[in-house]
Amino acid sequence: MNILHLLADPLSYEFMTRALIAAVMVSIVCALLSCWLVLIGWSLMGDAVSHAVLPGVVLAYVLDLPFAIGALVFGFLAVILIGAVRDTSRVKEDAAIGIVFTTLFAFGIVLVSVTPSDTDLMHIIFGNILGVSRQDLTQILILTIAVLLVVLLKRRDFTLYAFDPTHAHAIGMSPRLIGAVMLALLAVTAVATLQIVGVVLVVAMLIIPGASAYLLTNRMSMMLIIAPAISVGCSLIGLYISYYADTASGGMIVLAQGFVFTLVYLFSPRQGVIARQLKRRRLRSAL
Amino acid sequence: MNSSRHPHQPAAHPPGPGASTALEVRNVTVRYGSVLALDEASAVIGRGRICGLVGMNGAGKSTLFKSIVGSLKPQSGSVRIAGLPPAKARRAGLIGYVPQAETVDWDFPITVREVVGTGRYGRTGITRRLTRTDQDAVEAALARVELSELAGRQIGQLSGGQRKRAFVARGLAQGASVLLLDEPFAGVDKRSEQMISTVLREAADSGTTIVVSTHDLHALPDLADEAILLMRRVLLHDSPAEVLRPQNLALAFGLDPLGRPTDTRRADEAPADGGAVAEAEAAAAGDAAAADENWDGETR
């Protein structure tokens, strides 16, 4: 009874209800994408795209266009620039990523500082989940549901792309197109996630759930269930804790994810370091 | 006709252009930057034939495969699979590819059955959901390589030979008419090697054309109907026995026992250092998937 009360109490505030709905939707979508990002080895790309969308979002705001369009343009611009720097100079990919996304992000910060708006720079960088308006929520729902539909339809393509792009190519699929679709989903998801945890922490939502699930199962189909479950759980826990302890909600959500990953990393039945250590010791004593 | 083909072609299966031609590579030249990987390579392989591809590391074997699949675009020359350019052949599901072990992520959360299932993706609808027919084809392919009982395992939990059999099963499930295998016998136990050879022979007998790159020269005569000796260009395309003659191998591997060219006719094609090509191939391998997918096999 008491616990029910504890859970229901925040929902009496409309802003908390909106925050919860937004957090759940964004968590699910981020977690699904994170499964493929972790397997392809695109974690840094997720980081880059989520930062690089900032100037696009600000420009879209100025031009009164949907945020998603600005994000898509700058998300792809970032990927193209990274590829160009990597392929046409001796600079390696990690450095190219670091150069391109920070520059675009800096451009975004400068744009925010000269744009008269009611959006606080701090909200973009650290998120403003409790300030999600009805309009914001509509936009987040449209974006996340769109991503969800594409993911549901094309999940097997993504998995094959991650596992064996050469075979995908040989049987007439287009790895390049699948990769581009995935980047587009990444950019769109970054816009929606930005409001929840802020630009800086988007990448956490795009890596930690998938990485945790990867340590818990050997099956992709299970990963695609475990990762969203972890992500949604962490968002709810983080949000409630931030409500009662009066802490930063975005930070609390990601902290919860980091905590869960630590537990999984240590105690996963097969892939956890403790289980592996025990197995190694057993093998050694058997010898 | 191709000038580099040896005159002693086995008469029983004349691999000339025509209705029985499954694979035709004509004057394919590939450069990685300044490194020449394939130099006017040409070969015609008939339907239902098994062709061994022999050459040292960096001789251009992987480059030739990539040119056939169309994952890289030769500077010149053309490829035809059952008369079709690579892009059309891919869409028709004609090309099956069994990758080298090193290029596969064995920790990937995918089961053996799912790997074989991806062989059917070209025939599926928008969500790639397998139909009853697809599933039957997958189970039949698994049974043929004797992996039915291990089908639920994660792919990395198989032995080296079983892993290779899984990928061969994928090619069978696909029903490809040209099957390319890149070093299928590397790190494979004898039993798996035997089984793969038998399965390939059955597939060939039912009309599949098979190209196998291999270092296992001893197994070649039992496995293949014909062989290609590759050293950036096609040095020799003949019966395995002929290709395996020491003086011919010397051309491709630089093992000339007499210290001089054994065949003056081909002295100008004496082996060069393939190391640079191997390096360039390795560098290009990562870009294979990102390469131009719509290369149509025409000369540019």
TrEMBL record, chain A:
<keyword id="KW-0813">Transport</keyword>
<feature type="transmembrane region" description="Helical">
    <location>
        <begin position="223"/>
        <end position="243"/>
    </location>
</feature>
<dbReference type="InterPro" id="IPR037294">
    <property type="entry name" value="ABC_BtuC-like"/>
</dbReference>
<keyword id="KW-0472">Membrane</keyword>
<feature type="transmembrane region" description="Helical">
    <location>
        <begin position="173"/>
        <end position="190"/>
    </location>
</feature>
<feature type="transmembrane region" description="Helical">
    <location>
        <begin position="65"/>
        <end position="85"/>
    </location>
</feature>
<protein>
    <submittedName>
        <fullName>Metal ABC transporter permease</fullName>
    </submittedName>
</protein>
<keyword id="KW-1133">Transmembrane helix</keyword>
<feature type="transmembrane region" description="Helical">
    <location>
        <begin position="97"/>
        <end position="117"/>
    </location>
</feature>
<feature type="transmembrane region" description="Helical">
    <location>
        <begin position="20"/>
        <end position="45"/>
    </location>
</feature>
<dbReference type="InterPro" id="IPR001626">
    <property type="entry name" value="ABC_TroCD"/>
</dbReference>
<feature type="transmembrane region" description="Helical">
    <location>
        <begin position="249"/>
        <end position="267"/>
    </location>
</feature>
<keyword id="KW-0812">Transmembrane</keyword>
<feature type="transmembrane region" description="Helical">
    <location>
        <begin position="196"/>
        <end position="216"/>
    </location>
</feature>
<dbReference type="Pfam" id="PF00950">
    <property type="entry name" value="ABC-3"/>
</dbReference>
<comment type="similarity">
    <text>Belongs to the ABC-3 integral membrane protein family.</text>
</comment>
<feature type="transmembrane region" description="Helical">
    <location>
        <begin position="137"/>
        <end position="153"/>
    </location>
</feature>
From TrEMBL, chain B:
<dbReference type="InterPro" id="IPR003593">
    <property type="entry name" value="AAA+_ATPase"/>
</dbReference>
<dbReference type="Pfam" id="PF00005">
    <property type="entry name" value="ABC_tran"/>
</dbReference>
<keyword id="KW-0547">Nucleotide-binding</keyword>
<dbReference type="InterPro" id="IPR050153">
    <property type="entry name" value="Metal_Ion_Import_ABC"/>
</dbReference>
<dbReference type="InterPro" id="IPR027417">
    <property type="entry name" value="P-loop_NTPase"/>
</dbReference>
<keyword id="KW-0067">ATP-binding</keyword>
<feature type="region of interest" description="Disordered">
    <location>
        <begin position="260"/>
        <end position="300"/>
    </location>
</feature>
<protein>
    <submittedName>
        <fullName>Metal ABC transporter ATP-binding protein</fullName>
    </submittedName>
</protein>
<comment type="similarity">
    <text>Belongs to the ABC transporter superfamily.</text>
</comment>
<feature type="domain" description="ABC transporter">
    <location>
        <begin position="23"/>
        <end position="257"/>
    </location>
</feature>
<keyword id="KW-0813">Transport</keyword>
<feature type="region of interest" description="Disordered">
    <location>
        <begin position="1"/>
        <end position="20"/>
    </location>
</feature>
<dbReference type="GO" id="GO:0005524">
    <property type="term" value="F:ATP binding"/>
</dbReference>
<dbReference type="InterPro" id="IPR017871">
    <property type="entry name" value="ABC_transporter-like_CS"/>
</dbReference>
<feature type="compositionally biased region" description="Low complexity">
    <location>
        <begin position="272"/>
        <end position="292"/>
    </location>
</feature>
<dbReference type="InterPro" id="IPR003439">
    <property type="entry name" value="ABC_transporter-like_ATP-bd"/>
</dbReference>
